[in-house]
Every structure is written in structure tokens, then in C-alpha cells.
């Protein structure tokens, strides 16, 4: 609950966030962080994306209006990605539905200090698709158990959001050929073809950020176990 | 676990995130990441990148009623499958592959034992139990072979592998892994093609034991 109070103090959910700007197709629309500037949310003088703010509102306050906004933003994208990866059209909306319900039910596991909200939702979607395709639960890494008392600092959340924003900008500046590689790797059909090539993207800084979050979490969990 | 020195290659983390790996390789990556913060952070970075790609994807039109249908179901009890917790030397993903029960070992001779976890046309995953200082028969493989140490250690011509370390051996490598001194070596081995053993006897064993 400390998170809730802290976030309510720091995160002003602006009325403008209902309008997510129209999207151009393909990776040309990667300047998301830039385009939704108007809807950016203030937190301690820095910015987190509206999607992050909605997700935190869903997690901490079970906010249905914020969830509806998440739906409006993610459902069309999830459907598009699901179709691209080879799922029959008839099943695509079922998957979108499952994924959005999972976002609601798993909200307590969302940690804005360690994960980008779009990446977190992407993971839920991929896992769901794979579970269905294999008719078997996909192996997932062990969860680091978040205790109710685990409250990431607001500055960590903002730092994570900034790193994710940087990554989007870097992605936006890639040559078309590199963009196609990224699309192929994450949005393409999930054939077992190992392309042993690097994405060539600067993932180092966001990795360091996540690692910092992990170290802090490990430390906090250790302290918790002592008490 | 700060002293892991052999990690999952970056392209494999990327393909785990993108969903392009087989079940057997998914299992190895998920198990290693459970033991390794470095790779957990790298996986997070790739997820953030995938999230950015999701943001940038051209949205598809969804049916009119879909949003209301989802909103109407928010209070439904979520379908949750219980996932077995980690036990012994087996992190949660392996505990799940073992259905929460200790491995049922089958002898391969010379004290070496195995427990097949998964096998299909995309590859296989199995646990290996190798007594201290015992060698696993020389073998090559058509595809890739991943070996993740869960207990003890092993070494081969290339290097030394301790708990949490992952060896990625491609088809060029014909190697003889030897378990280290001390505790028996328990590892998770996965391939994306059947193994090839040299010599008649191992080949026969291969047929009998499906390795």
C-alpha cells in the first residue's frame, strides 16, 4: 500500500490521457514517447508514459477507467501482432481478450521499477500464444516474489521509464533494414529459426537499469527475511 | 549466484523473448534466468525492446463488443494453474517440468543416469546425473546442445562449468564432458536434434535409451 500512497502523491493522472494519438503503421511510429508528450504524466518533475500511469492505477486502485484506456491502447496492437505471428483471425480476438484479462488479474506482479509496461504486456501475450500453440505451459523464469511491503522508489520508476523512452528513440533512429530485423525477431511468426545475429541495439543502459532494480529487490527481500 | 561465468548468448535471449525457441530450449533459458540476475536483466532489456516494437506496430481493428466483453469479465475468478515451486537443485521451471516430483532416474551405465523431461520433433530436454570424475561418452550433435549445471561441475576440452553455467555446443564440437570432483554433477541438457555417439556400443545405447 505504500506504493499506492507514494504514487498517488507523485503521479498526477492528467485528464488528457484519454486521447492516445493516432498511430501510423510499422516501426515508423516508434516515436511513441515523443508523440504522446501531451499525455505524459508528471512524477517528481520527470515523466512516465500514460500507459505506465494507467497500469499503476490498475494495480494499486483496481481502476477500471484506467484499464479501459489500457484496452483501447493495447488491444488493437495485440491483435495486429497476434495476426502477424500466424494466429488465425478467428482466434486472434480470443487471445487479445485472454491477455487483457491476464493484465487485470496479474497487475499485482507488475513492477514499474523493473519492467516496461509494453514489454510486460508483450510477454503475457507471447506466453499465451505459445501455451495455446503447444497445449502446454511455456517454461517461464521463477518469479522474484514481491512482498506487499515491497515499494520501489518513485525515482526508480521514473528512471526505468526514461530508459524505456531512450530505447524507443534509439529504435526510431535505426535504418530500415535494422527495423525489419527487430520486427522479425519480436513480431514475426514464431518459427524455430535461430537467426544468430545481434539486434545491434544499445540494450546496455536499460539492462543496467533493470539489474540495479533487481539488486535492490534482492537486498530488500534479504532484509525482509531477517525480520 | 554471482559467479556464473557462462551465460545464455544474446541471440538466444532475444529468441526466447520473441517466442522462436523450442520447448526444450525455452526450458533451459527459463531455468538459467531463474539462477542468473545478469541474464534476467538482459531478458528484461529484450522485453522492453519487444514492448517498443509492440507500441510501434500498426494497430488492427478490433470488434465493437470486445472491450465491453472484457470489462464485463473483470470480476470473474481468474483461471490460474498452480505452478510447482522450486525444490532441491531444481528452480521453478524445472520443478514444473518434473510435475513437482523428484526425477525418476534411468541408468545409462557407469553410474550415469538420465531422466527425460521432454522429447518431440523440435528437440529434447533431459536431466543427467554423472558421478564425480566420470566421463559422458564422446558425442557430437547435429544441432545445438545446451548443458546447464544444476549441481557439481563438469569440464570438457573447451572449459570448466560450475553451477549455473551454460555450455552451448554446436555441431562442430565433439566433446567428452567429465564431471568434477566432489558432488555428482546434475545438469539439464537440451538439444534441437538427436545426439550422435561415436562407436558401436554407445550407438546401441542411444537406440535403447533414446538419447
What's the short story on this structure?
Chain A has helices at 2-10, 32-35, 50-61, 64-84, 89-105, 117-134, 154-172, 176-187, 204-226; strands at residues 41-43, 46-48.
What would you say this structure looks like, in words?
Chain B: This is ChrR family anti-sigma-E factor. Chain B: Residues 104-191 form the ChrR-like cupin domain. Chain A has 227 residues and is an all-alpha fold. Chain A has one domain (2-226): Rna Polymerase Sigma Factor, Chain: A (Orthogonal Bundle), CATH 1.10.1740.10. Helix content of chain A is 59%, strand content 3%. Chain A is built from nine helices and two strands; from the N terminus they run ααββααααααα. In chain A, strands 1-2 form a two-stranded antiparallel sheet. In chain A, helix 4 packs antiparallel against helix 5 (89-105). Chain B has 211 residues and is of the alpha+beta class. Chain B has a domain at 100-209: Jelly Rolls. In chain B, 31% of the residues lie in helices and 24% in strands. Chain B has six helices and eleven strands. Chain B has a six-stranded antiparallel beta sheet, with helices on one face. In chain B, helix 2 (23-35) packs across helix 3. The longest helix of chain B has 20 residues, at 37-56. Chain B starts with 9 loop residues before the first helix and ends with a helix. The mean pLDDT of chain B is 88. At the A-B interface, helix 4, helix 5, helix 6, helix 7 and helix 8 of A face helix 1, helix 2, helix 3, helix 4 and helix 5 of B.
Low-confidence parts of chain B, pLDDT < 50 over ≥5 residues? none
- Structural class category of chain A: mainly alpha
Query: Per CATH, what is the topology of chain A?
Result: Rna Polymerase Sigma Factor, Chain: A
How many domains make up the coordinates of chain A?
Answer: 1
What is the 3D form of chain A?
globular
Give the uncertain stretches of chain A in residue-range form.
1-40
The CATH H-level homologous superfamily of the domain at 100-209 in chain B: Jelly Rolls
Shape of chain B: elongated
